[in-house]
Automatic annotation (TrEMBL):
GO biological process: DNA-templated transcription
GO molecular function ontology, one term from the record: sequence-specific DNA binding
Superkingdom of origin organism: Bacteria
Sections of the chain in a coiled coil: none
Domain (HTH lysR-type) ranges: 3-60
PROSITE patterns hit by this protein: HTH_LYSR
Protein name: LysR family transcriptional regulator
Family to which the UniProt record says this protein belongs: Belongs to the LysR transcriptional regulatory family.
InterPro entries linked to this entry: LysR-type_TF_proteobact-type (IPR058163), LysR_HTH_N (IPR000847), WH-like_DNA-bd_sf (IPR036388), WH_DNA-bd_sf (IPR036390)
SUPFAM superfamilies noted in UniProt: Periplasmic binding protein-like II, Winged helix' DNA-binding domain
Length: 284
């Protein structure tokens, strides 16, 4: 049987409060409107739901039965709405291990200071599988992405301690760690282009590879070696004095970080996080 939702809401409120006038105040409608809704509901059901007295209304037996059902039903709806509202505050981010560890997590406390009522759930891995409500911060080929999806174009440079990055002309080769991606479809790290641009040669280096920039940075720190990697991922290490950027200029790459279909992920908290992330990456 089809009955109107406003009529059921008017009935539930009047049954709970024991008054058409009180129900009208709660629902921000007139007592006449409440009475009209309930009369229509009674006609639809062909029963009396209230016994109307001068100063109050009293539920009939069918009214009591319906009051239990409507109270439970609206409580279920309200609980679901509250859960959905809480979920809207939870921002789900899926990204690469290197970006999560080296760029996102170190800055996350600053996001919470700005937006203390949000919660960011981060998952990382090299294969990113998400639903339509997750923010997938991916590393990909710049040429293949829509302009509106791109967060930052990646630039690369050589990092190490101050002595290593200024003594590239020494006789023994300097060890450099860099990245050879698992995903062969990704553009290569632009080491050769950087060498050419700076009139340097592979002969000056012993190049070793990992499949993630995170590992190359960690190994360079452990061995007191150099790492050729993204300027985005080394910022906090440079600020902390753990790495020094070489005196050579960085070079643009064909890589970028992007969020696929960014403009379609329009929940309020997603938008706040994307704006914050874009501002964070500008600082690189």
């Amino acid at each position: 049987m089809q009955v109107s939702l406003p009529a059921l809401k008017a009935f539930e409120s009047a049954a709970r409060l024991g008054s058409f006038k009180a129900a009208a105040a709660e629902l921000s409608i007139s007592p006449t409107a409440v009475s009209h809704h309930i009369t229509n509901l009674e006609q639809r059901l062909n029963v009396s739901l209230f016994r109307r007295e001068t100063r109050k209304v009293i539920l009939t037996a069918p009214g009591r039965e319906l009051a239990v059902a409507t109270s439970q039903g609206f409580q279920t709806i309200n609980t679901a709405l509250e859960d959905i509202s809480r979920n809207d505050k939870q921002i789900k981010v899926a990204t690469t291990s290197s970006f999560a560890a080296l760029a996102l997590l170190p800055a996350l406390q600053r996001y919470y200071e700005q937006y203390p009522h949000s919660k960011v759930n981060i998952t990382s891995g090299e294969e990113i599988n998400t639903d339509h409500f997750s923010l997938s911060v991916r590393l990909g080929a710049l040429a293949e992405q829509a302009d509106g999806d791109v967060l930052i174009r990646e630039r690369f440079n050589l990092y190490g301690n101050a002595r290593l990055t200024t003594q590239l002309d020494q006789t023994s080769p300097i060890t450099i760690y860099t990245t050879r991606w698992k995903n062969s479809a990704l553009p290569e790290v632009p080491l050769q282009a950087w060498l050419n641009h700076n009139d340097l040669s592979y002969r000056q280096f012993e190049v070793r590879y990992f499949d993630q920039e995170l590992f190359g940075i960690q190994q360079a720190l452990l061995e007191n070696a150099c790492v050729f990697c993204s300027t985005t991922l080394t910022r906090d290490y440079v600020k902390a004095g753990l790495l020094t950027e070489s005196g050579y200029p960085p070079i643009d790459s064909a890589l970028c970080y992007y969020i696929e279909n960014k403009d379609s992920l329009i929940t309020r908290h997603n938008v706040m996080f994307i704006e914050w992330l874009e501002e964070l990456l500008k600082q690189h």
